[in-house]
Amino acid sequence: MNDLIKNIDRLHTTEMGIERIKRNLSIETDDVVQWCRAKILNEGAIMKRRGKNWYIRMDDCELTVHACSYTVITAHRRANPPRRRKAE
């Protein structure tokens, strides 16, 4: 179990972060932090720590969480990866 999962109860964001996450992901939720927790705890979530941040990829979005403060900094929709062409 990684530090992010161990400290999931410390996850939070700022007022500006709430608006940014809602805008970037086009979500209509009253509790952005709880929405983010659910995404992070999803079995399909891929978590990688790079430097001072955690990057969590799942479904069609990516969350960025500060590794020391557990602040959700931002979230973005992921572009669909290019499809490989079948060899003919």
Characterization of the model:
The longest helix has 11 residues, at 15-25. Helix content is 28%, strand content 26%. It starts with a helix and ends in an 11-residue tail after the last strand. The chain has a single domain (3-77), classed as YaeB-like fold (2-Layer Sandwich), CATH 3.30.2310. A hairpin with a 2-residue loop joins strand 1 and strand 2 (53-58). The protein has 3 helices and 4 strands. It is globular. The model has no long low-confidence stretch (mean pLDDT 91). By secondary structure, the chain is α+β, with helices and mostly antiparallel strands. The protein has a 4-stranded antiparallel beta sheet.
Our Rg estimate from Cα atoms comes to 14 Å
**Gross geometry:** globular
Give me the side-by-side strand order of the main sheet: 1-2-3-4
Topology as a string of helices (H) and strands (E): HHHEEEE
Mean pLDDT level: 91
Features:
88 residues, 4-stranded antiparallel β-sheet, alpha+beta, 3 helices, YaeB-like fold, 4 strands, 26% strand
Task: Write a brief structural summary.
With 88 residues, this protein is of the alpha+beta class.
How are the elements arranged and paired?
Blueprint: H1 3-6, H2 15-25, H3 32-41, E1 46-50, E2 53-58, E3 61-66, E4 72-77
Antiparallel strand pairs: 1-2, 2-3, 3-4
